[in-house]
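ok so for the tutorial part 2 we go from a plain amino acid sequence to predicted structure tokens. step 1 is just haveing the sequence, like this:
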Amino acid sequence: MTDKYQVFLISDSTGETLDRIFSSIQSQFSSFEYAKKEFVFIRTEQQIEKIIKERENIKNFIILYTIVDVNLSKFLSSICEKNQIPCFNVLGNLITSFSKILNQKAAHKPSAQHVLDKDYYKRIEAIQFTMSHDDGKKNVDIEQSDIILLGVSRTSKTPTSIYLANRGFKTMNIPLVLKQSIPKALEDKSEKFCVIGLFADPARLAEIRKTRVNINANIDLNLYTDVEKVREEVEESKKMFRKFKWPAIDVTRRSVEETAASIIKIYEIKKNK
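step 2 — the prediction. this is what the tokens look like for a chain of 273 residues:
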């Protein structure tokens, strides 16, 4: 029986690149048993110290990281050396290093991470679920969702949902429209689900709506793009988020990847409560 390793992935950004690199590495070792935890947007020494404290009493511990700040990178490397923690910047020869730690010979098999394993089918199922539950199309099976996104029109609900689905999360997104109710299940069991609100600057939303409006849509174009009406929509959505104590993310200046990284972090916190 092989030992199980605890792997911490530490990134100063969304962690997407690091996650992909680790996926490629672990696929080379058929008997590599591990539990993975991701830390994103790590940009201070205090954050790193807090992460290191989490590994107390954990055996077989490994850290991989992508940090562009030279001083912060050196700080992490130094604190890992002091605590005798295997720690690797992804620019190093990771497959060779893992081979030494695990005492296994790497397969050196190209594209080993693309095998049709359970994670692959989990992503496919998540994508199918997410596409069939886009823009409030379906909510009778709301309890099957991992994540539920709420927001007014053009707050990046769909692209964020698709991105999350590709990470294996069954994601439902529901548009918020003035004077229209949300699914009753959300109101009755608001704390049961991982619900996250998305909002953006009204002026920015109005501009996006003007450039991306569907001319065939059955809407009043003037109301749909009027800044004051958009402001009212956004404020009402924020009131709802506060009412049900749902975390909310301002997506005004965030990429889909950044928004998704924050959502995953919220999901993991709720899941581990």
